[in-house]
Write a sequence for this structure.
């Protein structure tokens, strides 16, 4: 992973020789200022964001798959990214469609705030429902319904919006790891670490849940409590990452499967750290590709994660011939 | 208890958000009497020359904008007084620039500074031959897409200033450029509603290069040309009725009565059938209402991107019902394209309303100005 981190920083749209990169990291001021800025304030935050996104989403996905006993579950199954999309849609498209005047938000934080508010709203509703409903399946379906609801509202907003706003919204939905400031990165890492700590605190419960709800209870796991923590950890991870980086598809869904096939284990004490590593590696790799080194355009990260990831999962499954879930 | 923990955590991170807010409310304490406004028609921007510094203010970066952006322009050796706050500070004259809209290109060319253009998103949109020659010589770097400029390339170019069209909300790449100490100016020329007002934005660019005198003389010649054409048009005997636009997926879009295009038609001494509609944007109408009101319009201009009668007929048979279709009185600017497919009209027309007016007067009143080569509009094939 360290190697990939270095490779990720080294490659990008502008060709910066490795020697210069080392000089910049060591604090040498003689290198061209633009290059210093690119490495220190653009590529390194981007790489760190990639590591957090990959590992955060992978761990969240693993938790969701275990909680719902469903191989198709991912971190966004609760409707978190739909809530974030709705918030951002109101912010970007709402201006002309609904005649909302643009309130002046501190420079650059508008979409982040809107996305967080959106995910938070969905999270509150999900937690409310979770306290009433015993069945995990019901939560899954409610999350899916939220997805449809928000997609419908967004399409109405989009119908009345001019082309530039639509394009901006679409570009947000493609996800983007770049252009994240150190301030934003610090806040993101704060949320990330809280989410990860919560996630690792329920590893034992996750193992027990694999055996089934009743068995887990006999092992002394409080179902309500661990469900709550799992939901909150997932929401913090998925919600904060979506707010800062946009909705990144596929990573949360596929990395747990890749890890399971690779390690052939179902013990979460093995799987969780492996997902952290695996998610980070995948994300760094995809981001390096998405930057299209030496080309002037770059591809949206969402497209790359799916294009790389999907065939890999298919290949693995065909090779192993069974799902190992 | 877990819920409380979560709430406190979230509130704490929310507080962190607020502590990072940037303060930037400019305090206007300059003496307005020592400075003269140099802008006549445009309402979206203003230049105030205070001898010791210049303030370029953009009040309409996007339609309905409530924020006025103030940019301080300082010559070599000048310093901005501490009491004045500005959204960006520039040293003029600048030596390199990045622009983001093709409407900025004609201003650069008219001022003779097109060689300072270092980068542009979507180079293929540019039609002007002079700038295309620079592109061929690889002097201008491709910067990707307008909505998400390639940040690395833009920072590597290190231009003195980036001129972007204003966006409601924010643009992540522009924020990154500002953090890298590259000033970003918002240009709201596309929000201007009067033809001469839009052309006057050449003065916006002139202020950056210290070429105000040149811009003044260029603009005055455009203004005089425009006004003399307007006077000439009044000599015409008839005032023909005019229709504009075409359908895009069941909706017919045409300019509202107070828009840039409608004003041009009025100044050409013609009767735009929708001139009584209020507003400066576009109307969205159904084919039935347009047919009802405008079937007998004598002229039809700017039918979107259609270039031939055949394509009109193939797209929708209803188009053939218009009198202008039957009498072959449709004029379009779609045929005027640059080498790589960019529309010349979108690029050049805002800066040269006198040429657009000339085309329109020639079309509507052929008895006045025959044999003038057309700049943008040609009869449909």
């Amino acid at each position: 992973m360290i190697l990939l981190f270095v490779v990720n920083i080294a490659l990008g749209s502008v060709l910066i020789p490795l020697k210069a990169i080392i000089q910049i990291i060591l604090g040498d001021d003689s290198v061209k200022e633009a290059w210093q800025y690119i490495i220190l304030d653009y590529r390194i935050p981007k790489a760190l964001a990639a590591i957090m996104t990959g590992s955060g989403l992978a761990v969240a996905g693993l938790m969701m798959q275990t909680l719902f006993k469903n191989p198709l579950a991912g971190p966004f199954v609760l409707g978190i990214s739909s809530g974030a999309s709705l918030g951002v849609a109101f912010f970007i498209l709402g201006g002309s469609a609904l005649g909302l005047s643009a309130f002046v938000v501190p420079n650059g934080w508008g979409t982040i705030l809107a996305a967080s508010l959106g995910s938070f709203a969905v999270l509150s509703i999900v937690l409310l429902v979770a306290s009433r409903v015993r069945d995990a399946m019901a939560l899954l379906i409610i999350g899916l319904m939220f997805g449809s609801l928000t997609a419908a509202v967004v399409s109405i907003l989009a119908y009345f919006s001019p082309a530039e706003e639509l394009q901006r919204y679409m570009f947000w939905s493609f996800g983007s790891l770049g252009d994240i400031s150190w301030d934003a990165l610090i806040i993101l890492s704060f949320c990330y670490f809280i989410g990860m700590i919560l996630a690792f605190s329920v590893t034992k419960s996750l193992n027990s849940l694999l055996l089934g709800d009743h068995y887990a209870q006999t092992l002394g796991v409080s179902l309500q409590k661990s469900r709550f923590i799992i939901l909150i950890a997932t929401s913090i991870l998925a919600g904060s990452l979506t707010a800062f980086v946009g909705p990144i598809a596929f990573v949360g869904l596929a990395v747990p499967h890749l890890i399971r096939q690779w390690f052939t284990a179902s013990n979460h004490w093995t799987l969780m750290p492996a997902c952290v590593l695996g998610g980070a590696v995948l994300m760094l790799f995809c981001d390096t590709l998405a930057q299209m080194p030496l080309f002037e355009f770059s591809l949206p990260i969402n497209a790359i994660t799916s294009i790389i990831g999907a065939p890999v999962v298919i290949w693995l499954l065909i090779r192993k011939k069974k799902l190992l879930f | 208890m877990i819920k409380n923990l979560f709430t406190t955590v979230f509130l704490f991170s929310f507080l962190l958000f607020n502590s990072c807010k940037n303060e930037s409310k400019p305090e206007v304490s300059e003496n307005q009497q020592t400075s003269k406004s140099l802008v006549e028609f445009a309402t979206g921007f203003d230049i105030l020359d205070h001898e010791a510094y210049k303030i370029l203010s953009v009040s309409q970066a996007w339609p309905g904008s409530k924020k006025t952006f103030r940019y301080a322009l300082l010559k070599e050796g000048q310093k901005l007084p501490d009491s004045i706050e500005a959204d960006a500070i520039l040293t003029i004259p600048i030596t390199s620039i990045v622009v983001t809209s093709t409407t900025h290109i004609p201003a650069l060319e008219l001022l003779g500074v097109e060689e300072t253009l270092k980068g542009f998103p979507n180079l293929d949109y540019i039609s002007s031959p002079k700038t295309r020659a620079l592109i061929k010589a690889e002097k201008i770097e491709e910067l990707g897409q307008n909505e998400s400029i390639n940040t690395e390339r833009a920072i590597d170019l290190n231009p003195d200033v980036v001129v972007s069209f204003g966006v409601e909300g924010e643009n992540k790449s522009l924020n990154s450029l500002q953090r890298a100490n590259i000033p970003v100016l918002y240009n709201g020329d596309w929000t201007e509603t009067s033809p001469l007002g839009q052309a006057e934005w050449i003065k916006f660019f002139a202020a950056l290069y210290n070429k105000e005198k040149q811009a003044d003389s260029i603009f005055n010649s455009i203004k005089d040309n425009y006004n003399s054409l307007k006077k000439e048009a009044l000599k015409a005997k008839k005032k023909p009725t005019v229709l504009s636009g075409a359908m895009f997926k069941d909706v017919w879009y045409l300019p509202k009565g107070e828009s840039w295009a409608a004003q041009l038609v009025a100044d050409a001494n013609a009767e735009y059938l929708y001139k009584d509609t209020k507003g400066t944007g576009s109307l969205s109408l159904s084919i039935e209402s347009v047919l009802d009101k405008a079937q007998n319009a004598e002229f039809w201009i700017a039918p979107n991107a259609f270039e031939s009668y055949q394509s009109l007929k193939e797209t929708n048979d209803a188009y053939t019902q218009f009198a202008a279709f039957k009498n072959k009185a449709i004029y379009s600017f779609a045929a005027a394209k640059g080498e790589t497919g960019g529309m010349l009209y979108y690029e050049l027309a805002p800066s040269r309303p006198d040429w657009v007016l000339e085309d329109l007067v020639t079309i509507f009143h052929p008895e006045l100005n025959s044999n003038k080569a057309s700049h943008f509009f040609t009869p449909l094939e």
Summary: The interface with chain A takes residues 2-3, 6, 9-10, 13, 16-17, 20-22, 24, 64-67, 141-145, 147-148, 150-153, 155-158, 167-173, 175-176, 179-180 of chain B (CB under 8 Å).
